[in-house]
Specification:
The protein is of the alpha+beta class. It contains 20 helices and 35 strands. Helix 8 (254-260) packs across helix 16 and helix 13 packs across helix 14.
Amino acid sequence: MAEIVVRERESISIHIQGGPSTEFPRGVTGQYIVETLFPDRASQIVGIEVNGTIYDLSRPILEDAVVRFLTFDDPEGKQIFWHSSAHLMAEALEALYPGIKFAIGPPIEQGFYYDVELPEGATLTAEDLPRIEEKMRELACRAVPFERIEVSWEEAVRYYQEHWNPYKLEILEELRGQPITFYRQGNFIDLCKGTHVPSTGMLRYPKLLSIAGAYWRGDSRKPMLTRIYGICFPERVQLEEFLRLREEAERRDHRKLGRELELFLLTPAVGPGLPIWLPNGTVLRRTLEHFLRQEQLKRGYHEVITPHIGNLELYKTSGHYPYYADSQFPPMALEEHEQYLLKPMNCPHHHQIYASKPRSYRELPLRLAEFGTVYRYEQSGELNGLIRVRGFTQDDAHIYCAPEQLKEEIKAVVELTQYVFRIFGMPVDIRLSFRDENAAKYGGDRALWERAQREIQEVADELGLQYTIGLGEAAFYGPKIDFIVRDALGRRWQLGTIQVDYVMPERFRLEYIGPDGQPHRPVIIHRAPFGSLERFIGILIEHYAGNFPFWLAPVQAIVLPITDAQHTAAVELAARLQAVGYRVQVDLRPERLQRKIAEAEHRKIPFLLILGRREVENATVAVRRHGLGDQGSYSVEALLQWFAALNVPGAEHAG
């Protein structure tokens, strides 16, 4: 370190985010800073953000910096913690399975995984996971530091040629000319760019969750590896709470509830990732569409419908092809020199509507909306019920406006999106997703990008939004506002999005005639509150555990006659409720009442309306509510008033 300290200046200024600035020697580490300024917090700090870049606490800081210390409670801190846990698991695996080869071991949203190639003749099953966990705990108790080692590309290649690993060599081939780092803890060393916790002693409470097969790089033509999933926590109580929530999540699993409640079907006969909506699921989906459609009509949107395929040249113009080539279905050659693509995005089709005739500034803003189905060829290992599919419907809209209208339009879309998530009782975190200046994926003029990012941030500040900034999270054509909701289990899901786009108007040469009689480029806002109906409904099923609020339930009530003598009255009651728009069934089967009640409860129908001799004579209905039991007797008029109060989006919070 002494060699680093003696440079142009003897000291640098370190500004602690939310705190003071302090002078430190050049080359100071985050570990030294935190032990000097916040010794009581030193054991909780897992990493440090230096001028927006995540560092190990042991890495020298060579210039003036704004720093932020990261704990496990920070999203970035969790990623550091779980990345380090993947390395700890790899060390345990190497000790238990000599000769094992490691591919990649990244942190994920909930934990980590490592893809490995087992030694010849070795097997690894779920029964082996406790043994690996025990080895991880043993290694963690040694509390050895994570050491960052900078090497040349040639040294790294030579290492993996000597310790033969074709997976690391393939990764290194892509890193030629870039800085290369290894990380070592104890006797284990791995190619890795980091970041890691200071010591394995932090990683004391691991839990390995499952084993799966995974093709190397998701390519079915490449070797099948063993993927081991796990998670780890700094405190035992956190692990215990995770396991409790995991058990609850399994109970709420939308794939299981989708079968039980007969909402959707996934069958190999149609193809993986292509859901079929059953009658109950179709009602649920159409109800959501109707809700948003009504809100859009109030706000001046015009609904459109576009084809499921389009000419390949359309997507080349937009940039979606070949940018998303790996996740699109192959082009279809229908005629010589003419190729078509299953629609990966709705946007280019909407741009054709805008461009179909001359536009005046008096027509702006023009808001086009569509429940448009698009197709992506997701890898089979990534498919997950409705959450990750190959065909999904976006609640897509594109707003074409003059630049001076942009901020007000963004505000209106933010208000709509926040309203949508309030209806479903989902708290929302907001991320401003900006470009990473070091990435090359972005299109368009840099000055327009800077303008769009500035305008998005100004809107967020003017609305008083609490937000984080995600560098590198922007779409290839513009920055965006992402809405990340938390469900009933506290899980975070990125759903709604608002994107500002100066790029597509240039690519499609979109224009309007301004007040000065001259042509001008509009700005486009891409907007989808739900994101995709499939993903949103999958999350919604789990959020409610299938107990949908009355207004959303596929079947809102079921009439249960006690004996055959009440059949006519039951049919008449159901017809009366259906006539005013309620989704009501009647169960006339010759089964005992208790069995009918149990089956209706299992189906999670909100209201069970029971008719016996006394109810028919008194013109009343005995009411049971799902999960709440007997509610007493009501006249049909009182029941209708009750239903009317509940049949409003969001009313369940008061019902």
